[in-house]
Amino acid sequence: MSNDEEHKSHKEMETGGPEALRNGEIEPYDLRAAEHDAVFGDIHEDGPNYRNVGWLGTAALMVKSQIGLGVLSLPAVFDTFGMIPGVILLLTVGIITTWSDYIVGVFKLRHREIYSVADAGGVMFGRIGNEFYGAAYIIFFIFVGASGLLSVSISLNALSHHAICTAIFVVVAAIMVFIPTSIRTLDRISWLAWVGSTSIIVAILTVTIAVGLQERPSSAPQEGVWQSDYKLVASPTFNDAISAMGSIVFAWAGTPTFFQISSEMRNPADFNKSLILCQSIITVIYVVVGVVVYYYCGSYVASPALGSAGPTVKRVAYGLALPGLLASAILLLHLPAKQVFVRALRGSKHLTSNTPIHWATWLGSTFATVLAAYLVASGIPVFGQLVSLIGALLGTLLSFQTMGFMWLHDNWSEGKQNPTMKWWLMVAWSIFVIVSGSFLMVAGTYGSIQNIVDSYKVSGGSAAWSCADNSNST
To answer: Where is region (Disordered) located (predicted)?
Structure first.
């Protein structure tokens, strides 16, 4: 193969084929010039290689950014809506967020200077958009990372029969997470994503199989004849329905992490291949787990469902899930720390060189992020309800409306000059994504605030830095 032919082959591989190049849809990405990156600048041997994640590693990171114990809230979601509407709504949100994920990859190839959703906000809305989306992203994932620290503490409590104060377990979780969070590049974290994804999936399937083999759920009446009271169609109240929708959206809310994951890909044109693998795995697991666990447990399903098969299986499942819980917290705190780090050093030689400033900035970013997550996890009395509020307010915004605006930004001006039926359909779809996301955001925020008020009326909230066993209710 001649040099010209090789160069052409590289271009086609990066952009999805000759047709995309011929139509001018995406500017070719030259692999031979990969030593200089639009985000990280010059990448050389004297520093970390931020462009070294393969497509399989990318798929693992995508899976791990989404799948966690949140999947075990889906059987309770099906109990709220009924099995048939529950599956339909789960798949509908999955389709919308998969499109959003796809738009992330397209937008990244067209605007290679983008590193995170904050940069995308800057492209669309200028400095205000950059600051707004940057703050929203960091706040959202600090809370999600804090939830990860609590999940680790729950696992440690379950495995040790609450051997020590829960507040100490949260400190232990933060320490366990900090060191691997400080690994600088995603290619070195991708193996953790593989291990974590596998451990979570095995734990989830263990519970799913166990509830199918048991006579009745552990919370069901233990005397007399018992039959699952699952419903095909239910009639939830508005608050119950919007809370359940929040759980579905949260299960798919890995979308904003895909900007940073794609930025560290060795070959960004492989993004769609990674996305298809990721979403296929996620969809199968979500549907199978939700349907099977709810079918066998009915209204007696626990949320999360680890406790549905009894205390022994619960401890086994938490033992299997612990590596995955750690991996979730590591990845979801690494990414906001990396955003702070890149913003601080972008355009300087310190970003990709092993200088004292590089190391001080990086370790400072990871330490501050983990510390913030720890303080949120331990110090906020209404943490669970607050996570729901943040998820409804920011998670929906970062996974729905933003991607609708991204498509319109890149296609409105050019398309309206010579509108086609495809263009009009995509405009309608983008507006639908924006409107539906806005409805879910407003309604979910209202429902979360109402739940916080109701919780205070009943118990006055829980204590900060509590020693109480947080594994009893899961």
So the answer is: 1-23
